């Protein structure tokens, strides 16, 4: 694996700050809802499928949006002789940085809320409501991370297919 390209994808991802931050927030909400759903589904087998379908849809849509928004960049990279595997690694890096960042945001929020609730040791309604809303147990949260990363593979395959159809001459056209 070419780590130079992977780190370049991290830098390239944060050039489009608005889109990346918006999707980090969307992924954080996805992690919380899927984690809570998996936590509740541990009691009844087979109840996790709607949550996994939601994770699949969000992950696939983001991968497709990356290939759409990065079309001009991909065309330029093809003009300077980047291979298809290097472009795929660029897409994978951007998707993974968003997923891992969202996971870390949710983890940090959970730790902060649990710390504040434990510190005050009171039955303060707002803190308890935040704890019920945001905090996910560790095991369902780790499973959610694995599911989201795994469910991004079909979306990345579709994004790769779309990115490979982009002709290098598109970078030279005026738009």
Number of H/I helices: 7
Residue windows where pLDDT falls under 50 for at least 5 positions: none
Mean pLDDT: 82
Total separate domains: 1
Helix content: over 70%
Main beta sheet strand tally, sense and closure:
none
Sum up the overall morphology in one term. Answer: elongated
What is the number of beta strands?
Answer: 0
- Determine the N-to-C terminus distance: 34 Å
Radius of gyration: 19 Å
List keywords for this structure.
175 residues, mainly alpha, 80% helix
List strands and helices in order, with pairings:
Elements: H1 3-13, H2 17-41, H3 49-69, H4 71-79, H5 84-120, H6 125-134, H7 138-164
Helix pairs in contact: 1-5, 2-3, 2-5, 2-7, 3-4, 3-7, 5-6, 5-7
General description of the model:
The protein has 175 residues and is mainly alpha-helical. The protein has one domain. The protein is built from seven helices and no strands. Helix 1 (3-13) packs across helix 5 and helix 5 runs antiparallel to helix 7 (138-164). The radius of gyration is 19 Å and the shape is elongated. The mean pLDDT is 82.
Summarize the structure.
The protein is built from seven helices and no strands. It is mainly α.
């Amino acid at each position: 694996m070419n780590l130079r390209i992977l780190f370049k994808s991290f830098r390239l991802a944060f050039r489009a700050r608005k889109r990346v931050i918006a999707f980090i927030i969307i992924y954080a909400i996805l992690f919380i809802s899927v984690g809570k759903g998996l936590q509740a589904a541990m009691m009844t087998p087979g109840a996790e499928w709607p949550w996994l379908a939601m994770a699949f849809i969000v992950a696939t849509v983001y991968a497709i949006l990356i290939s759409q928004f990065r079309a001009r960049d991909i065309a330029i990279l093809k003009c300077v002789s980047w291979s298809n595997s290097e472009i795929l690694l660029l897409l994978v890096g951007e998707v993974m940085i968003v997923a891992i960042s969202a996971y870390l945001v949710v983890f940090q929020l959970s730790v902060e809320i649990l710390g504040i609730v434990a510190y005050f040791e009171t039955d303060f309604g707002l803190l308890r409501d935040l704890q019920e809303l945001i905090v996910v147990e560790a095991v369902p949260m780790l499973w959610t991370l694995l599911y989201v990363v795994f469910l991004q593979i079909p979306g990345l395959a579709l994004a790769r297919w779309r990115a490979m159809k982009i002709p290098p001459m598109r970078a030279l056209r005026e738009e």
